[in-house]
Amino acid sequence: MAINIYEQCVNPVTGETFRAVSIDPYVFKMRWHTKPGLPHSGVEHIHDKQDEIFYVKKGELKLLVDGKELKAGAGEKIIVNKGKAHVVLDTSSELDILLEYRPALDYDKLLQCFEGLLNDGHTDEQGHVDIRMLAYMMKKMRCKSLTRPAQMSALKFKMLLNRYYFIGVFKGWNKLYDKYTK
Fold first, then answer.
1. For residues 96-121, b (16+ Cβ closer than 10 Å) or e, as one string?
2. What angle do the packed helices 174-181 and 107-119 form, to 10 degrees?
3. 77-89, pLDDT tens digit by residue?
4. Taking phi first (over 0 means left), then psi (-120 to 50 degrees means alpha), and beta for anything else, what does residue 105 get?
5. Domain 9-102 CATH (choose: 3.10.50.40, 3.40.50.300, 3.40.980.10, 2.60.120.10)
6. How far apart are alpha carbons 121 and 21 in whole angstroms?
7. What does pTM read for this prediction?
8. What are phi and psi of 129, to 5 degrees?
């Protein structure tokens, strides 16, 4: 049975929660909540085809965008334009964020895969999902919402997707992909 992204998903390591709010062709909205003092599972990354908007509902968001530290409190927002490297710096306060991805593209299916991997425990000790498995799924779905590590070029990342796709074919990861998305 497919992952229902409208139900709350909890990262078992960090306690972060994720829940889709709405989707249409122009925007995908989701809630992201962190607990005070706990690490979060984010790494510096780039959305090549989407803008990401952080609407702070609670707490103070500290975000590094292309080397510049930005802050936003409750009622404020930070816009990260496509192609900009960014990472959340600090989660010492509780954060409740409404995230928007513009355009929506196929972020809903990407979130299904991400949450499925979390639910099935395919994470490391820091709560990051298994990047090999997520890369396989991104390639399998011909992901338009590609989110890549900031330190990696788009070309190198596409080569990595191909590599993990072939590994996933041999390891039978298609069964997990089908479980999460169908």
1. bbebbbbbbbbbbbbbbbbbbbbeee
2. 110
3. 999 999 999 999 8
4. left
5. 2.60.120.10
6. 24
7. 0.94
8. -65, 155
pLDDT of residue 48: 95
Three-state SS for 147? Answer: strand
Residues of the chain within CATH 2.60.120.10 domain(s) are: 9-102
Structure tokens at 164: 């993990």
Nearest residue to 131 (alpha-carbon basis) of 31, 56, 45: 45
| Contact criterion met (CB below 8 Å) for 117 and 133 | yes
For residue 90, give Cα distances in angstroms to 34, 43, 101, 129. 10, 12, 21, 20
Region at 172 (left for phi over 0; alpha for psi -120 to 50; beta for the rest): left
DSSP state string for 29-73: EEEEEE-TT-------EEESS-EEEEEEEES-EEEEETTEEEEE-
User: ∠21-82-147 over CA atoms, to 5°?
Assistant: 70
